[in-house]
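Write out this protein's structure.
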Amino acid sequence: MNGKPYLLPGSILLGSVIVACGLYLGLRERATVPAAQPEPSAPSSPAAPPPTPMNASPEPSVDRHRVEGVAKEANRSRKRGPSSAPGPASIGAASLPVHVEAPSPPVVSQRVVEVWAKAVLEIQKQTVFLPRCWTPALMRDPNPATSRYDIDMSFNAEGVEVMRGVVETRGESRADVGVCLRTMPIGLRLPPPGANFRVIIPIEFP
């Protein structure tokens, strides 16, 4: 009986020692065991880029150096002022055909026109008036054997005869020949006198 009071505290102390040893050993074993490494997962495939529309064109890249060069050239053009190169309007005008009127001939004197008209009228008399008017009239009636007329002619600036009149002289002109002369076509030509002229040239037959 004398030893029993010490059994209970001894038992408690022994149990505490056992529990403490168990905890110590358990903690030590957990520290020595390496921590489980997570299994490496399969590498995930990279996300596919979003589909590009078929009709979408790639954005053009901007060349910064080229843009700066264009800006510098524009500044130099403004400093030089407007260009002297012909524009589209002037090029188009230069390519069009330009109508240049020929210079008009100088105007000659009345006297010069009279000389010209007398010369062409003499040719007309020999080639047309004599064979077509004078000779047939003489064959019908030989008298009078001479005749005189004043031929009134008008010429334009190009020298073309545009009007003619036949003036008979009383007692000196045969009427039948005068009628024939008035039926002859006009249109004699002179060198261009440069202006309109009217001349009166006398002719005599034969």
